[in-house]
Amino acid sequence: MANVYQIENLLQCSICLDRFQTPKVLSCQHTFCLICLHRTFNTQSRTLTCPTCRKVTILKQGPDELANNLLLINLMDVQPVKAKCPSCQKVEKLTVCEHCNCTKCTDCNEKHINDIRQSTKTKLDELKNTNQNALKGLLKKRNSFLNYFLDFIFHFNIRQQHDSILLTKQMDILKQLDAHEQALLA
């Protein structure tokens, strides 16, 4: 039975030495990445020479017209990508972080996600504290303004009462003067 490394070697393009990207089959039955074939395609003679066996394949429109290697495509779907984890250097199936698109093994990815969660929680706590401090400052300013306004209304009412008392006294004096004048004229 084939081990993981043998299967990985089957899924590797012999031109770029990476995992196949859109594997295409030449007339000699060798398979290469579509991108690699585009690089080796001779646009003037419309030919492609196989890098492995040197057999020439004539193409009217270019490497895109070649058949896909469906067997390799299906095998790539079944065989997970294994590579060296950039964090711990273990060769394992790598997963992609949905938050920052970095690739890591499952263990490192879980630690990375926990770090992101902790960092996010810390930032949210800092924002909460900042908002609470800002709210306290706004409440202090509102209370100060409210006290000023109430003080203004209080003094305004006192002034109005004082003016009302003065006006009442002046009206009483005018009534007395009017009564005194009426008495003198009679």
UniProtKB/TrEMBL annotation:
Coiled coil: none annotated. The keyword Transcription does not apply. Residues 13-54 form the RING-type domain. Keywords: Metal-binding, Zinc, Zinc-finger. SUPFAM superfamilies: RING/U-box. SMART domains: RING. The keyword Zinc-finger applies. It holds the Pfam family zf-RING_UBOX. GO terms for molecular function: zinc ion binding. This is RING-type domain-containing protein. It comes from Rotaria magnacalcarata. The lineage of its organism: Eukaryota, Metazoa, Spiralia, Gnathifera, Rotifera.
